[in-house]
Amino acid sequence: MGCSGRKTLSFLLVFMLVYLHGASSQETRPAGQRKPFFERLRRLEEQSLEEDSQATALAVNRSQAIVWGNLAHLKSWVRKSQRRSRKVDTQLQALHLTLSAQGRQRAQEADEQKARQEALAGLARDVQAMQATLARLMRQIHSQGARLAILEGRLQTDHHSPSVPPLTLALTPSRPAKPGPGSLQLQRGRQTPGASALQNHPEDTSALPDPSVHRSLVRPQDPSQLARAPQGQGHICNVGPVFIFPNASTQNVLSFSPSLLTALRALSFCSWVRAAAGYLGTLLSYATQDNDNKLVLHGRDSLAPGSVHFVIGDPAFRELPLQPLLDGQWHHVCVVWASTEGRYWLHVDRRLAATGSGFRAGYEIPPGGSLVVGQEQDLVGGGFDGAEAFVGSVAGLAIWDRALVPGEVADLAMGRGLPTGAILTLANATWAGGFVRRISCTCLEHCP
């Protein structure tokens, strides 16, 4: 071995000797001297165990307290959850009952709505049937009215010409009389050229009595009518004021305020007219914000002389023949329209000059617009054109919200007063500026 090995061996020998010496010295000591050390060690161990036991007990107590607290919270939460569950169950039951009741109510409402729809459908069918019946009645009434007018003319002619048999008089042409203030009777015997058909509307037809019947209507003044006139003057009296439009100025206009207060599903416009120009111009114009031609009776110098456009809700119109009005004499004009089947009638001097159907059937003229006489409106209350202005005189103008029957038209044309229910007359008209003049005449034949 080397030097290092000998040193290590020597160290080990010395250590063993020291250890053996110490052990032998401990064995020679008395046992009583070793006891305090173990007692102290035992007490330390017991103290440590007691402290550990106390700590453990404390920890257990704390854990137990926490567990009991958690259990108490859990029991409280369970009770609350049960109460909430019962409330939710109650609410669900109430909701179920409500939904069931609503379902039954909706089913009942659906049944009621179905019943109402069926009732409305039945009512609509009844209304359509009533409208068709009303249309047939209107046609029959107008036809009977025309026949009554013809018979009345024959009777009056027979009364004034007893030496001439009625049939011979009806077939014998009358001599044309010189136009005068009483040209109302003269115009009844004049056949209107071109009145057998309305232009551009093949579905429209004119209803003109037989020419021989017109000749039978040419008669002298009726003494019975003279007796009804005040102071025995003239034939057409008590028609109210006369308004004169002397020229085609765009300032010559009559306006109605208020105009139409309710919607119109039927209309009658009647007036005495004496034209002073080679064309008729505008007799009536009704404009709204939506349409400036809701209701118009107008002609212009570019149209055929004596023809006017009868417009309801532009662009729908019919062209009406009014050539007899261009002789400078007084004539009575009535334009009647009914929304049912869109029928219309034109009466001139008690004679049915034109009629047709399918014109604005089911349409309704709205209220609240601007209504004027003498000018055609291109915007509400304005936009006038002198080429469409009326030049002449008007009297007895009135508007109804229903279709007049022929007997009422005949009474108007004979100066027997206005039928009931007129919604507008010249008494409602106002005018400002321009050259329009208002005069009063006892009878139209004596108006200047």
CA distance, first residue to last residue: 173 Å
CATH class of one domain: Mainly Beta
Quickly give the CATH architecture of one domain.
Answer: Sandwich
Helix count, per DSSP?
7
> From the alpha-carbon coordinates, what is the Rg to the nearest angstrom?
57 Å
Q: Residue share in helices?
A: 40-55%
Question: What's the average pLDDT?
Answer: 78
Strand content: 15-25%
Q: Indicate the overall shape.
A: rod-shaped
Low-confidence stretches: 160-203, 205-233
Largest sheet: 8 strands, antiparallel
Number of strands: 15
Class by alpha and beta content = alpha+beta
What fold name goes in the CATH topology slot of one domain?
Jelly Rolls
N-to-C order of helices and strands:
HHHHHHEEEEEEEEEEEEHEEE
In short:
This protein has helices spanning 3-28, 35-160, 166-171, 183-188, 211-217, 223-228, 406-413, and strands at 242-245, 254-256, 266-275, 282-287, 295-298, 307-312, 317-321, 331-338, 343-348, 351-356, 370-373, 392-400, 422-425, 429-430, 437-439. The chain is α+β, with helices and mostly antiparallel strands.
Please characterize this protein's 3D structure.
The protein is of the alpha+beta class and 448 residues long. The protein has a domain at 185-210 and 232-446: Jelly Rolls (Sandwich). Helix content is 41%, strand content 18%. The chain is built from seven helices and 15 strands. The strands form two sheets. Strands 1, 3, 8, 9, 10, 12, 13 and 15 form an eight-stranded antiparallel beta sheet that branches. The protein has a seven-stranded antiparallel beta sheet with strand order 7-6-5-4-11-2-14, with no helix packed on it. It is rod-shaped. The protein starts with a helix and ends in a 9-residue tail after the last strand.
